[in-house]
């Protein structure tokens, strides 16, 4: 159009030329307009097609298969199972019990499967009645202060919100807990109660295992009464003696690419060579030890402070969190097992699940060598459970030794007593049992199948990320003791950590680790007073807390009273972080430092005695200052004694009865003002 306008204004154009030009210009316009219309139509056509196709894309991608995969009902129907045993497990024991129960089922003409609740849709419980003679069993461990284990968290959340009718569901629950903890077996009790509330039918009473006593015996006692109840309910009978059934088959690799062989990784092959975040239990970060120093000046024990470098890992932590480390077994123990069993430990093998439908293809990462399995994947230092002894008995060529093993694995009172004294109290690990029973020489592959997994060890972090964003500090004491048989037993993780050498190339300075979040947190307001009670290595998280309060003070924040009650055996021997605590007190961050030296005088003095001494000040901080109380350390004695001391203080200064004082402290716990980070 612009060109046509310009042509009409040109005086030099003759009329014929002008006409010819106009003809030419009109044809160009036609072409332009046609092109424009065609372009618009094409654009509209494709745009319209895309808009029409977009809603179809998700439909095309929504495949039914994953739903089937997450349905344990479909899996049970497909594989002919009628008993499902779910486990909530943090250290592997509940998973082990679930596997034992699912294996038991075949003795009664039933078929069982162990299942991780994290892998399935638990709302399918309402459909379990579609399967004949169906039963759901729950082996549920309680973690921390009455919490579900990591893999049972989603199940717990679902139970809390569910309004599903479970009237067709038959169930039984065995809980794993520890009586030294405030919320003994809270998860087992909750699951048992909640399933009944939703209409499910309990076919056998709740079992409560106590790890502070004899968890194995508690389980066996419950199990030997559980199966008769199942038989009575379904009208079935035991089909015969308990028999040894292998769950995995051995495949030896003679010609294998060593790049395809696991060398200690927890999940992804070569993950230690090619590290990729995020880092967690299945993908730990290899942190370099930058400092490893002895904290105590004397005594028989070795108390240590380690610093792990987490630079470039994107790992974040907060004061009060836990660091989990994956240790390795002592190579001398591994070698001795290999020698006794006459095995080439460097043989590369796989243990493959005979049940092809199982989600668990191997008991540990495969293919690998026996040496790697016994070093990084299997627990060879704890006393084996009775099911391991039962399975191993068939390999004892001496009849007396075979009978002894079978007796210890039985549910008879005499057998239980023998297992308790000869295995548990004598702290006999698998190597000691092999040494003390010369005729017992099982195939190493069956032994590897039976031994439980070596678990990560958790430590309270002894640093603040505000001060040390690229470093995580650990405070630990090496475990070493003589058993009743005269053997020297050593703690796996602490002795392994003790030998980590900073600034040394190679694996000797590396620690596979990840961070586990905790509820052990400083108050939201820095001005809130804190009372910290942590004798021995229980001081660890409080070093982080005090570092953080010092940092907050430097930022110009108003920081409330920071009070520490610490205890150790002797002032000149094992007073941990003495210089650091003195410096914090001098700087005015640590407003009170109360230290109990239990063995420096004739009469033993502990942290609870110092609390009683300062009871008026304690009450004022709690009642008027709204202080937060933190207790870290031994659950069996110290934490209980400290709690009883708080009952006394509250009762005396709050003019309350014992029952009212207990209720007052329990309410502090509910409000997050009395927190525990304890172990037994």
> What is the number of helices?
23
Q: Per CATH, what is the topology of the largest domain?
A: Rossmann fold
For the secondary structure, the number of strands is 23
Taking pLDDT < 50 over at least 5 consecutive residues as the criterion, the unreliable ranges are 1-27, 43-68
Largest sheet: 7 strands, mixed
Distance between the first and last residues' Cα? 91 Å
CATH architecture of the largest domain: 3-Layer(aba) Sandwich
Question: How would you characterize this protein structure?
Answer:
The protein is an alpha/beta fold. It folds into four domains: 72-234, Rossmann fold (3-Layer(aba) Sandwich); 276-327 and 456-518, Beta Barrel (Elongation Factor Tu (Ef-tu), domain 3), CATH 2.40.30.10; 328-454, NADPH-cytochrome p450 Reductase, Chain A, domain 3, CATH 1.20.990.10; 530-678, 3-Layer(aba) Sandwich (Rossmann fold), CATH 3.40.50. The chain is built from 23 helices and 23 strands. Strands 1, 2, 3, 4, 5, 6 and 7 form a seven-stranded mixed sheet that branches. Strands 14-11-18-9-10-15 form a six-stranded antiparallel sheet, covered by helices on one side. Strands 21-20-19-22-23 form a five-stranded parallel sheet, with helices on both faces. Strand 16 (480-482) and strand 17 (488-490) form a beta hairpin. Helix 1 (2-8) packs antiparallel against helix 2, helix 12 packs antiparallel against helix 13 (399-408) and helix 22 (635-653) packs across helix 23. The longest helix has 39 residues, at 15-53. The protein is globular, with a radius of gyration of 33 Å. The chain starts with a helix and ends with a strand.
């Amino acid at each position: 159009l612009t060109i046509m306008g310009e042509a009409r204004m040109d005086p030099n154009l003759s009329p014929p030329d002008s006409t010819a030009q106009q003809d030419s210009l009109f044809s160009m316009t036609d072409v332009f307009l046609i092109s424009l219309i065609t372009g618009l139509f094409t654009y509209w056509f494709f745009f319209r097609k895309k808009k029409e196709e977009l809603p179809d894309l998700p439909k095309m991608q929504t495949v039914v298969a994953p739903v089937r995969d997450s349905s344990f009902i479909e899996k049970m129907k497909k594989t002919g199972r009628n008993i499902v045993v779910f486990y909530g497990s943090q250290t592997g024991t509940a998973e082990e019990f679930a596997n034992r129960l699912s294996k038991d089922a075949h003795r009664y003409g039933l078929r069982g499967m162990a299942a991780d609740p994290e892998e399935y849709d638990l709302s399918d419980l309402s459909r379990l009645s579609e399967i004949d003679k169906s039963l759901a069993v729950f082996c549920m461990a309680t973690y921390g202060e009455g919490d579900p284990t990591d893999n049972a968290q989603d199940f717990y959340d679902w139970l809390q919100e569910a309004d599903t009718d479970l009237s067709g569901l038959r169930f039984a629950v065995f809980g794993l807990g520890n009586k030294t903890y405030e919320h003994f077996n809270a998860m087992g009790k909750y699951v048992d109660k909640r399933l009944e509330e939703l209409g499910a039918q309990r076919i056998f009473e709740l079992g409560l295992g106590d790890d502070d006593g004899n968890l194995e015996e508690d389980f066996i006692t419950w199990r030997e009464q559980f199966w008769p109840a199942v038989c009575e309910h379904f009208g079935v009978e035991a089909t015969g003696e308990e028999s040894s059934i292998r769950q995995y088959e051995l495949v030896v690799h003679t010609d294998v690419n060593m790049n395809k062989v696991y060398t200690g990784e927890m999940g992804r092959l070569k993950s230690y060579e090619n590290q990729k975040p995020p880092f967690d239990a299945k993908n730990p970060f290899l942190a370099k030890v930058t400092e490893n120093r002895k904290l105590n000046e004397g005594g028989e024990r070795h108390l240590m402070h380690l610093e792990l470098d987490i630079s470039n890992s994107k790992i974040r932590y907060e004061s009060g969190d836990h660091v989990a480390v994956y240790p390795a077994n002592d190579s001398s123990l591994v070698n001795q097992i290999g020698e006794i069993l006459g095995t080439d430990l460097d043989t590369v093998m796989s243990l493959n699940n005979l049940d092809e439908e199982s989600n668990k293809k191997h008991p540990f990462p495969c293919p690998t060598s026996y040496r790697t399995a016994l070093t990084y994947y299997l627990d060879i230092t704890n006393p084996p459970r009775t099911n391991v002894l039962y399975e191993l008995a068939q390999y004892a060529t001496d009849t007396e030794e075979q009978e002894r093993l079978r007796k210890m694995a039985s549910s008879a009172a005499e057998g239980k007593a023998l297992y308790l004294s000869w295995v548990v109290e004598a702290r006999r690990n698998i190597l000691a049992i092999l040494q003390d029973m010369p005729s017992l020489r099982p195939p190493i592959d069956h032994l590897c199948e039976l031994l439980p997994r070596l678990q990560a060890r958790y430590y309270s972090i002894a640093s603040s990320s505000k001060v040390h964003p690229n470093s995580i500090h650990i405070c630990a004491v090496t475990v070493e003791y003589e058993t009743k048989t005269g053997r020297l037993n050593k703690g796996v993780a602490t002795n392994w950590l003790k030998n980590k050498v900073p600034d040394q190339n190679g694996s000797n300075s590396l620690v596979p680790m990840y961070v586990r979040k905790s509820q052990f947190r400083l108050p939201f307001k820095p001005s809130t007073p804190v009372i910290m009670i942590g004798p021995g290595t229980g001081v660890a998280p409080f070093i982080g807390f005090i570092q953080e309060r010092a940092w907050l003070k430097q930022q110009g924040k108003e920081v409330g009273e920071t009070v520490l009650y610490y205890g150790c055996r002797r002032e000149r021997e094992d007073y941990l972080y003495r210089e650091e605590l003195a410096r914090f007190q001098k700087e005015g961050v640590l407003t009170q430092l109360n230290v109990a030296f239990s063995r420096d005088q004739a009469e033993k003095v502990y942290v609870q005695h110092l609390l009683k001494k300062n009871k008026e000040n304690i009450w004022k901080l709690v009642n008027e200052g709204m202080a937060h109380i933190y207790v870290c350390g031994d659950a069996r004695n110290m934490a209980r004694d400290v709690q009883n001391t708080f009952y006394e203080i509250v009762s005396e200064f709050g003019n309350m009865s014992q029952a009212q004082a207990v209720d007052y402290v329990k309410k502090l716990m509910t409000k997050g003002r009395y927190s525990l980070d304890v172990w037994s």
